[in-house]
Structure formats: C-alpha cells, structure tokens
Automatic annotation (TrEMBL):
<keyword id="KW-0732">Signal</keyword>
<feature type="signal peptide">
    <location>
        <begin position="1"/>
        <end position="23"/>
    </location>
</feature>
<dbReference type="InterPro" id="IPR050902">
    <property type="entry name" value="ABC_Transporter_SBP"/>
</dbReference>
<feature type="domain" description="Fe/B12 periplasmic-binding">
    <location>
        <begin position="61"/>
        <end position="340"/>
    </location>
</feature>
<protein>
    <submittedName>
        <fullName>Iron transporter</fullName>
    </submittedName>
</protein>
<dbReference type="Pfam" id="PF01497">
    <property type="entry name" value="Peripla_BP_2"/>
</dbReference>
<dbReference type="InterPro" id="IPR002491">
    <property type="entry name" value="ABC_transptr_periplasmic_BD"/>
</dbReference>
<comment type="similarity">
    <text>Belongs to the bacterial solute-binding protein 8 family.</text>
</comment>
Length: 340
C-alpha cells in the first residue's frame, strides 16, 4: 500500500538524507518509495531456466514477445518499464481483460516476428521472451546473441529446455507462472504485488477445483492446437495440462514430457478423448478446426466427436499467462456438464 501522506519538508529531509549516504530515491512500480542503493533492494539475483541472473537495477525498456508474456508484465503493473511489445493481431480480444489499460499505454512495436534489429531500435535493456516464443537459434535470435550486443533477457519458464534435445518444460505449468511472477516481482521491486497475484490465482484455482469433476467422473480430454497430418498438442509442461487437470479433466497426453509438441492421430484415437479443447488463434478459425475434427474419418468413432463435446479456449488462455486461472474456472464449468 502507498505510504501515508507526510509533510513536504519531512519528505525532502528524508530524500536528502538518503542522497547523502549514496542512495537514489525512486518511485517503485507499486507506488512505494524505494532505493537502488547496493545492499538495499539491488542487486537482485533470480534463477531462470536453471541459470542465475543478476540485475543491478530494474530494467526500464523491456520488450516482450507474445500475448501471455506481455500480459504477465501488465498484470504486475510494469507497463512503465516497457519499451513495447511484439505480437500478431490474431491473439483474441484485448479490450476486456483486467489489464487492458496496459495495451493502451504501451507501444505495439510489431505484428511480425521479433528480431534483434527491432530490439535495438527500441533501445531495449531487456527482452522477455522464450524458446519458440520469440527465441530461435535458426533465426539467430537468442539470449546469447542479445547479450553480445548489450541487451539482457529473461526466459519464460514454460519454455525452459529440459536437457532432452530441444524438449521444453522443467516444472508444472502453474508453477512456471508463479515462478515468473515471483522472479519479476524481485527484478522490478514489486514483490508484494506478485505475491498478491499468486494468492488470488491460487484461490481462483482452488475454488474451481472444489466444483470440478473428480475420480471416475473426470472426462478424458485432448487439446487440439492445429495440424491435419499430425496434431500439435500439449504435453505435461504446457499450460493446458494444468488447465485440463485442475478443471477436472484427465489429460490424455500427460505422459509427454514436453510442452507443445506433435503426436500421431493413432495415439489420439487409441486414447479416445471424451472432450476436445480447441486452441483458438491463427489463420484457421476455431469453427474451421471444429469442422475438420468432425469430418476427419479416423476420428469418427472417438467419443468427443460422436457426442459433439468440443470446447474452445483462446490461445492466451492456454499458454503461460495471467489468464490461466480464469481458463481453469471456465473449463471446469464445461467439464461438469460432460462428467460421467
């Protein structure tokens, strides 16, 4: 909470006293007074994707990539620390989210792919992105390359590589969200705000779980992202796993130790999902994805298709983002209708 109003003379005296001992008085993102004096808040060190990262001060010109990452910053009230964001214009409605003002205050830098030139043109001091959420060796856009040109980075925890080739995922999806909120809370000196968000998210999830199907009533659920020859879906380390599981579903791809990955249609048929969740984004609409699933002959005898049990959630609901808890609540309501 903000400090109570104090007489101007007292504030000035306090500022002079701090300045005299080598500290810089700042206004933190949560409205509190802070100081960048070594030995006070900064420097801070966090663990990010298995690496220790130290920040001498709060970054001031952050560039984010993609909608979920951008909204993590907005949920923490950090738009004043941003140079802008990069995302396509196919990621759903941005006008009704609790942090919609962040979009009004922050520059939309590009609807194309993020790259080094864009970051340098924005005079960024940090890029918040992830593997396959902007960072990509094939295009030469990596944390190592940014470091070479003097730009720091923070990796989305959902995208952490786990040491098995390029497979991603080192912790359960909601833990990844809470980890990033805590880390960014430390980096930007808004730890109270981060903990408040985590507490509210945990409560929202717990409330949804209390009403969700349980035991043998839990329907088998498959997440369909896209793809006709092979479906792109989610494993144990992408957002849909926790969203499905905590909403009362049995995630049929829970044994995949990866985040977003492809499988064969034979596997989907063998596991016979009773509900399919469509990831709504991109050039192929949710209605077009639904039509494909219902017309694809190998799926004709799958329970979800026979009983027309198809649910649609937006992309930002399903990737790591502050919308994940609300997605759990929404899906739990749908799954209660389908419970055995």
């Amino acid at each position: 909470m903000p400090n109570p109003t104090r007489p101007a003379a007292l504030l000035l005296a306090a500022a002079l006293a701090l300045t005299g001992c080598g500290a810089d008085v700042t206004t933190r993102a949560d409205g509190k007074e802070g100081t960048t004096e070594a030995g006070r808040h900064y420097p801070v060190t966090v663990e990010n994707c298995g690496e220790k990262r130290t920040y001498a001060k709060a970054p001031q010109r952050v560039v984010t990539n993609d909608v979920g990452i951008t909204e993590i910053m907005f949920a923490l009230g950090l738009e004043n620390h941003m140079a802008g964001y990069v995302m396509p214009d196919d990621k759903g409605d941005m006008t009704s989210v609790p942090w919609k003002d962040g979009y009004k205050k922050t520059k939309w830098l590009s609807k194309e792919r993020i790259n080094k030139e864009l970051v340098l043109d924005a005079d960024a001091d940090l890029v918040f992105a992830g593997w396959n959420y902007g960072f990509n060796e094939g295009e030469g856009f990596t944390p190592a390359e940014l470091k070479r040109v003097g730009v720091d980075s923070y990796l989305l925890s959902e995208s952490c590589r786990n040491g098995q080739g390029k497979a991603r995922g080192v912790m359960p999806p909601l833990d990844a969200l809470y980890t990033d909120l805590r880390n960014l809370g430390k980096i930007f000196d808004v730890e109270d705000r981060a903990e408040s968000l985590i507490t509210s998210f945990r409560k929202e999830v717990a409330d949804a779980q209390a009403k969700a199907p349980k035991g043998d009533d839990r329907p088998r659920v498959f997440l369909y992202d896209d793809g006709k020859d092979k479906p792109l879906t989610s494993g144990a380390y992408a957002g849909p796993h926790d969203i499905i599981t905590k909403a009362g579903g049995d995630h049929i791809m829970k044994d995949l130790k990866d985040s977003w990955t492809t499988v064969g249609w034979e596997t989907v048929v063998d596991r016979d999902p009773e509900v399919i969740v469509i990831n709504n984004y991109g050039d192929t609409t949710a209605d077009q994805k639904r039509a494909f699933l219902k017309s694809y002959k190998p799926l004709a005898n799958v329970s979800a298709i026979k009983n027309d049990r198809i649910v649609v959630l937006d992309y930002v609901d399903l990737v790591e983002s502050p919308r994940n808890p609300a997605a759990i609540s929404s899906l739990a309501e749908d799954l209660r209708k389908f419970a055995r």
